[in-house]
Amino acid sequence: MQPIEKFYSALVTTRKKSAELRTSVFKLRTMTTSMREVSVDPQHDSTRAVQAAPASPAHDARYLAVRQATQALAAPLSAEDCAIQSMPDASPVKWHLAHTTWFFETFVLAPHRPGYRCFDPAYRVLFNSYYNTVGDKHPRPERGLLSRPGLEEVLAYRRHVDEAMFAMLSETPSAALPAEVASLIELGLHHEQQHQELILTDVKHLLSRHPQKPAYQKQWPLTPIRARTPRWIDIGQGLHEIGHAGPGFCFDNETPRHRVWLDAFQIASHPVTHGDFIAFINDGGYQRPELWLSAGWDAVTARGWQAPAYWTQRDSQWHAFTLHGEVPVDPNAPVCHISFFEADAFARWADARLPTEAEWEIATRDLPLSGNFLESGALHPLALRETLADGQLAQAFGDVWEWTRSDYGPYPGFRPAAGAVGEYNGKFMCGQYVLRGGSCATPASHIRASYRNFFPPDARWQFSGLRLARDA
């Protein structure tokens, strides 16, 4: 039996025993140790940021690992869970499963696999996200209206594409794939890892809207840990380089590497906690317009914000909805599900500011890429815990994406890649802010210090928090 057949045979069995498959998501670290990195020349133009090295025999194993990880995330959910769209910014799990498959069919198989037969021509429109170069697309706010195809047909679509991809990767394992094909496959795998995180954040929002507040995962692996006292870390002035330095994959928006001048500044050793944010709330933070940007105050008054997303107060105790259900807020864990507006207001209340993305990258450049990622199984920020050497940041990677004060814009000399994949990042460089570091829902192999996430300033459904900075 071929590996792809074994995978789908196991999938049919384990979907009937979801408790077993549910635990597989927490074993992803071992599944992904063979993931191949891609060489990128940081001195070349930005179109090189999605080019790949020749394929290796492990390429098919990496492909299967990423694809299996996505379906493992969907295993605890019913077909009804997978079909619902809880708000325009979120997408149904079924759509995520199909769209990540559409990417490989549209950009790899259709143009580069002779004789490939598309599963259903209608999917080209139904599961296109924002690629105008490809053609028409179904409106994003109406993805939840796609009652058809059903979940089982979407899984059949994934199998159809996976079989074709696996055949492509396995036919000549000792030979190099064309550079263009290898780069598109690598981009597709990292694209799918982005959607793994989106599956969790979108499911969390979906379940939070249910009156019974059901849990995605019932066990609660978190235990209270005593508070750590944050300290200020000094970073001296100087000329620095930021951006992807290689080797390894990066998105085009992380290039080209370039020099920036930074004045001396200080940055907090730890992210802001729930307890810190409760102090902000208790001091009237959401009722004091002088703390807020104008657009932020408009959002507070129009939407009635009084606390981070998913928080409710009962008997003077704050509770938060999590992927494990509703639990008391842990004051020692990093605050999450706050907008840029809330992060900026808190920083002003604390007589500090948000770091720029250049400051954040320089402050974390020598840190190991370790932390509370998807593979830990926590699916929630963990309490402040690391005790690092002087001058090092704690919990910079994982737990929560950290808002920066930087607008999401092009680096000097940035040029999007040619063709439809050039729409991946560049066209969103307007009206958004950069976040850094990854979260508890980010796959560990997906993150790096130069990674630039970005969202509109009012977005709250992601695992987004903050770390303070101030001028020296």
Notes on the protein architecture:
It is a single chain. With 472 residues, this protein is α+β, with helices and mostly antiparallel strands. Helices cover 32% and strands 11% of the residues. It contains 12 helices and 12 strands. The strands form 4 sheets. Strands 10-9-8-11 form a 4-stranded mixed beta sheet. A 3-stranded antiparallel beta sheet has the order 1-4-12, with helices on one face. The chain has a 3-stranded antiparallel beta sheet with strand order 5-6-7, with no helix packed on it. It has 2 domains: 3-208, no CATH class; 232-471, paralog of FGE (formylglycine-generating enzyme), CATH 3.90.1580.
**Helix-and-strand structural type:** alpha+beta
Give a short account of the largest sheet. 4 strands, mixed
Radius of gyration: 22 Å
**Range of strand content:** 5-15%
- The residue fraction in helices comes out at 25-40%
Q: Which fold name corresponds to the CATH topology of the largest domain?
A: paralog of FGE (formylglycine-generating enzyme)
Query: Strand sequence of the main sheet, in spatial order?
Result: 10-9-8-11
Number of domains: 2
- How far do the termini sit from each other? 63 Å
**Looking at the structure, what is the overall shape?**
globular
The CATH superfamily of the largest domain is known as paralog of FGE (formylglycine-generating enzyme)
Number of helices: 12
Q: What is the average per-residue confidence, as pLDDT, rounded to a whole number?
A: 87
Question: Helix and strand succession?
Answer: HHHHHHHHEEEEHHEEEHHEEEEE
Uncertain ranges = 10-57
Number of strands: 12
CATH second-level architecture of the largest domain: Alpha-Beta Complex
CATH class of the largest domain equals Alpha Beta
